[in-house]
Hints:
This protein has one helix at residues 4-35; strands at residues 49-53, 62-67, 70-77, 80-85, 95-98, 103-106, 112-113, 119-121, 130-131, 133-136, 139-142. It is built from one helix and eleven strands, in the order αβββββββββββ. The chain starts with a helix and ends in a 5-residue tail after the last strand. It is an alpha+beta fold. It is rod-shaped and about 90 Å long. The model has no long low-confidence stretch (mean pLDDT 80). The strands form three sheets. It has a four-stranded antiparallel β-sheet, with no helix packed on it. Helices cover 22% and strands 33% of the residues.
Amino acid sequence: MTSPARSTYRWTDYLLGLLILIAAGAVFYPTVRFLQPGQTPPVLSGTLIPAANLEEIPPGQALEIEYASTPWILVKKGHEIVALSGVCTYRGSELVWDAGRNVLVCSGHGCTFDRHGNVLWGLATRPLETLPVRIEGNRVHVAGRAM
């Protein structure tokens, strides 16, 4: 026959084990979510739309726009303008233009992309999505394309 003290220790051991499992799950789950690649929203096919005036984008700078409910960044270097997704290909975090280094930096994990959307550093393995850009007069136009 087991003593009452021994039975109390057994339940305490079970409870302590359960608490340890819950604590491990609370640490493990966010860690796995952090390391798992996220889903990048799809680019929708659409017509040519005006995005900005040329004067709104100084040379060597960027302008954030929204197209098809997704953030996009227009980057200007000389006379060339590139429309890049404003969403990181690793976890879907927002990208921010770093004018000092002429790169896009992920606000979530620090992934770095050049002004053409190529991965320079970080956990991202795919380049940024781009949109076709057309300049007509003083207006910059962008268009989606089917995936």
